[in-house]
């Protein structure tokens, strides 16, 4: 059975790439280079915020905007170096992407990350041919839980929101999908199942998902 006319939009960090460790290690490396302090508790409390916001929060006092921007670029470059050495694909990501693509779904990435990070993820997955659209942090003016990122993705896929499902790992991302009028699938790990209870479906692994299950969810959630 094919599912043409349906789409799945994937968040990136924590959904397609298990990026927690690489992001933390890149923060530690930047801190060492700049002679700053940074702990895993610091990282955990700011996870999901932009790099520039984190730099300004911890080290921004007295730093000019130009220096903050330079540190931001350096941190993201360190992150990409790490994932290119040993790409940490989320368990089941490649299998799900391939199954959805072969079943006729249109696929997109909807992330607030830098375009260079999304490109590195696509290269690491080696499945770029399966995706019809990407939306990056450069394409949006409002972050999640605002639905802008997913609405732009649907527009680029040429489908109405109610024909789309979103796979997310963060409560704000699930809220954005719901506000966009899309079926929401929450992947636990970054957040607990309780914090993702507003999703239409919560799973502990991408291996639990299938084209049939997502198509049924879109139909059930939005007709």
Q: Can you give keywords for this protein?
A:
six-stranded parallel beta sheet, 2 domains, 6 strands, 9 helices, alpha/beta
Give a concise summary.
The protein is of the alpha/beta class.
Structure notes:
- It is a single chain.
- This protein has nine helices and six strands; from the N terminus they run E-H-H-H-H-H-E-H-E-H-E-H-E-E-H.
- It is of the alpha/beta class and 223 residues long.
- The protein folds into two domains: 147 residues, Rossmann fold (3-Layer(aba) Sandwich); 66 residues.
- Strands 3-2-1-4-5-6 form a six-stranded parallel beta sheet, sandwiched between helices.
- The longest helix is centred in the middle third of the chain and has 21 residues.
- It is elongated, with a radius of gyration of 17 Å.
- The two termini are 19 Å apart.
**How many strands, what sense, and barrel or not for the largest sheet?**
6 strands, parallel
CA-based shape: elongated
Give the C-alpha Rg.
17 Å
Structural domain tally: 2
Oligomeric state as shown: single chain
Low-confidence stretches: none
Which secondary structure elements does this structure contain, and how are they paired or packed?
Layout: E1 7-10, H1 20-34, H2 40-46, H3 51-59, H4 65-85, H5 93-102, E2 106-110, H6 115-125, E3 133-135, H7 148-157, E4 164-168, H8 171-179, E5 183-187, E6 201-203, H9 211-222
Parallel strand pairs: 1-2, 1-4, 2-3, 4-5, 5-6
Helix pairs in contact: 1-4, 3-4, 4-6
């Amino acid at each position: 059975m094919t599912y043409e006319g349906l789409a799945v939009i994937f968040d990136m960090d924590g959904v397609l790439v298990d990026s927690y460790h690489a992001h933390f290690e890149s923060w530690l490396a930047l801190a060492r280079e700049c002679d700053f302090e940074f702990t895993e508790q610091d990282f955990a409390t700011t996870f999901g915020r932009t790099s520039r916001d984190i730099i300004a929060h911890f080290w921004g006092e007295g730093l000019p905007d130009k220096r903050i921007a330079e540190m931001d670029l350096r941190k993201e470059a360190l992150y990409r170096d790490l994932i290119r050495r040993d790409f940490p694909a989320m368990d089941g990501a490649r299998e799900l992407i391939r199954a959805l693509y072969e079943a006729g779904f249109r696929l997109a990435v909807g992330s607030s990350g830098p375009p260079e990070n999304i490109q590195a993820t696509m290269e690491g997955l080696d499945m770029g041919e399966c995706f019809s659209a990407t939306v990056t942090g450069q394409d949006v003016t409002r972050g999640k839980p605002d639905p802008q990122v997913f609405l732009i993705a649907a527009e680029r896929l040429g489908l109405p929101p109610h024909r789309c499902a979103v796979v997310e790992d963060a409560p704000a991302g699930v809220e954005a999908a719901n506000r966009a009028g899309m079926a929401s699938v929450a992947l636990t790990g970054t957040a607990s199942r309780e914090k993702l209870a507003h999703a239409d479906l919560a799973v502990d692994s991408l291996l639990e998902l299938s084209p049939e299950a997502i198509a049924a969810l879109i139909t059930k959630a939005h007709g």
